[in-house]
Amino acid sequence: MKTSLYHTPNPMALLPLVVFIVSYVGISVAANDFYKMPITVAFVLTSVVAVAISKGGKLNQRIEQFCRGAAHTNIMLMVLIFILAGAFAQTASAMGAIESTVNLALTLLPSNLLVAGIFLAACFISISVGTSVGTIVALAPVAVGIAARTGMPEALMLGVTVGGAMFGDNLSFISDTTIVATRTQGCKMSDKFKVNIRIVAPIAVITCLIYLWIGMGNQTVYEVGEVEWVKVMPYLIVLTTALLGVNVLLVLLIGIIFSGITGILTGGFDGWGWMAAMGSGMTNMGELIIVTLLAGGVLEMIRFNGGIDWIILKLTSRIRSTRGAEGSIAALAGFSNICTANNTIALIMAGPIAKDIADRYGVDPRKSASILDTFSCVVQGLIPYGAQLLMAAGLGSVTPIDIMQYLYYPYLLGIGTILAIIFRYPAKYSK
To answer: b or e along 397-422 (b: 16 or more beta carbons within 10 Å of the residue's beta carbon)?
Structure first.
């Protein structure tokens, strides 16, 4: 089977990924402490290796190639989101918005329903706004506040938030991944949704039951403070504008402005205090921004040197059946996502190749679109250098690895999708 490749396939181009896994995950596991090895240091080592082994000419040319990846439009957009998210989170915290919102959640939900409640809220918001990052920005500070008040692990509550955020990223009609997956496979979004929901819904129900079971074990007694509605309003405004589909950057700017005005009017801080809160929030995102820039450069070097093309070649060389074709499409989406850390970009790259595979082996385009989208969201929700886990960790006080142990929904979704491929489910779309 012929596949259109843009670079000479080269397995050595994937060496930086191995370096990152060994230097960060490996050393942290060996030390039994994921705070021992700073993720920024691991990415610097990975970046050095990526530039050193590149075939992009002289050192200056290779460094320029690395910088082009770090300065990619999508990377810089993520950086802007992180900066504004940090400013909003710190401003909202300084004026009491998060505390009041947490009090409201504790008033409405008993302690044993809080975990499942946050998951369902994240599912609803993400499927409404079509963006996992926007959902995490809106809910993560509240999840952290609830964890602090109830004694539940902060990483658990952030994992719940990320899982629910990926639910909507996968299913929403306005999600970038849904749009790209359906366009590249040549099917309607509504048809893809019919296949997708059959696979996803049982997984979401199982995940919710797990969170209900976890919540049942939480018998912490806590005092619910007063709900100051005027301080809740900035958060409600942010959620409302997000649900209306407003651009996430504009949503965050609106949140910063309303939080600042409310803080001044309620005596939470003065004008200089507002400036200080914004500055502190932006500074707190420094590590997150550094990792994002370095990851963008590393992944560009992997792409440029043929790492992704090598994976594609291997995945498409031994297909023998429709089931094998579907498995290859899933693996293609997953590996592309690992190498780009952006599920939309991964689908743009993998989509046309997946379409070729689907046409050759009789895979229903609705099924191929569903598999593409679902597996890209599974991987995106699990990689520790992806925007979702980095954002969640940045808004809390944990590492992405801490959160990964609680990502029940992405893990179960990956298993469920593999089982759907093996057992030809849904049967109507697997002929």
So the answer is: ebbbbbbbebbbbbbbbbebbbebbe
Q: Can you spell out the DSSP letters for 241-292?
A: HHHTT--HHHHHHHHHHHHHHHHHHTTS--HHHHHHHHHHHHHHTHHHHHHH
Spatial contact of 266 and 230, defined as CB atoms under 8 Å apart: yes
Which residue's entry shows tokens 């301080």?
A: 231
CB 426, CB 50: distance < 8 Å: no
Q: Give phi and psi for 379, each to the nearest 5.
A: -65, -45
- Residues 51, 66: Cα–Cα separation, whole Å: 7
* Residue 426 preceded by cis peptide, ω within 30: yes
Map tokens 């369902």 to a residue.
120
* Distance of alpha carbon 230 from alpha carbon 96, whole angstroms: 10
Helices (H) and strands (E) in the chain, counts: 22, 0
| DSSP per residue, 187-254 | --HHHHHHHHHHHHHHHHHHHHHHHHHHHHT-----------HHHHHHHHHHHHHHHTT--HHHHHHH
Query: Nearest-CA neighbor of 162 among 349, 371, 369, 402?
Result: 402
Token code pair at residue 141: 């500070």
**The two three-digit tokens of residue 103, written as one number:** 């009090």
* Contact (Cβ atoms closer than 8 angstroms) between residue 79 and residue 288: no
Query: 10-residue block means of pLDDT along the chain (431 residues)?
Result: 57 89 80 75 92 89 92 83 84 80 71 84 79 83 85 93 93 82 87 92 96 77 65 80 76 89 90 93 85 86 86 78 92 84 79 85 93 94 89 89 94 96 87 70
List the one residue out of 415, 341, 428, 404 whose CA is nearest residue 160.
404
Residue 36 and residue 33: Cα distance in Å, rounded?
Answer: 6
